[in-house]
Structures are given as C-alpha cells and as structure tokens.
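To: structure desk
From: M.T.
Subject: fold request, one chain
Message: Could you run this one when you get a chance? Sequence is below, nothing fancy, just the single chain.
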Amino acid sequence: MTFDGDNYPYAFGGDGSGLGIDLSEPLAFLELLPKLDIKLVCVSAGSPYYNPHLLRPFLFPPSDGYQMPEDPLVGVARLINVCAELKRHSPHLIFVGCGYSYLQEWLPNVAQNVVRTNQADFVGLGRIILSYPDIATDILEGKPLQRRRVCRTCSDCTSAPRHGMVSGCYLLDDFYKNRPEFEQLKKIKSTK
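Reply: Done. Structure tokens follow.
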C-alpha cells in the first residue's frame, strides 16, 4: 500500500484513514510480549508533536498547535476503551492507561473505576504531575484534591519546550511564573 495523501497506512493501530482504529497489529504484538519476557504495557496514541490531541486531550492547544478536532472527552474515552480492549485480549499482561489529565478533578473517580473494573492495572499520570507532583499520594491517602494545583490542560508545559524553554507548569506553579521564560511564553502565546 502506498501513501496517497488521503490515507496513512503506517500508523500502528490505525486503520489507514488517519481517524479509525485497527488493533490487529497491536494485538499481534501483545502475543509476542510473553515470549520476550515483557509484562508491562503502556498504552499510548499518536505523537505529542504531530497530533497531541490523541495522546493528551487538551482544553487549550500548544502555541504552535491546533484546536481540538473533537471534544476532549472523546479522546479520553478512546484511550480508556482501547486500553480496556487490549487488557481483555491479554489479561496476563500489566497495562498502564494514559490520557487522564484532561479529567482534572474527576481523574481520581474515573481512574478508580477503570482499575476496579479491570480496564487497566494502573493509570499513568503525565502532565498533571508538573503542576501537582503529589496528586497520587493525596488520592491514595484519601485526601481532598488541591484544586489550585490540578492541571488545566493549557498546554504551556508543551509550548515552552517547543520554543527551547524548560517544561513546567507556567500557569499554576510560582517557580515557573517567576522564571524569565514566563514572559517569553506570554509573548509567544499573544501572537498566536
């Protein structure tokens, strides 16, 4: 099959349309893992550099990005559902799901359900750790979330590195707000 501009047949787990899912290759790959003594699988999607909405649904796009082509909850649901399907196929493997930061205050509730119903064994926490590094501890200890520290999916943590700056939560963390890069990032965002 050749790339004709309308289809992209090279996406692992994609149907070639750029929009659909075909898990035949990932399922075949899962069959190989026990032979390689691999037990842990982190389920991800797309590339955060080319199509960030697939891996990390957002409210605000990166400075050089695009508006979400779908409701971010659709992306979260897709990630959860694909992980659950892979887990059903290979229950002997340990699965880590991704894409939960967009859920913000609802993250603990959804994560608890996903693990409790065996749709994943763990819930990976990505960019939310930049603004709230101890969120997992707070959740596991039954503490209320510190709302002012919960990631708001503003994409500053990815916009900064795209422009040669250090990644961090420029929106919520005073450490990053007081860095010279904060003003640079504001200027970059104001021109978009």
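Reply (cont.): Residues 72-89 form the longest helix (18 residues). Let me know if you need anything else for the meeting.
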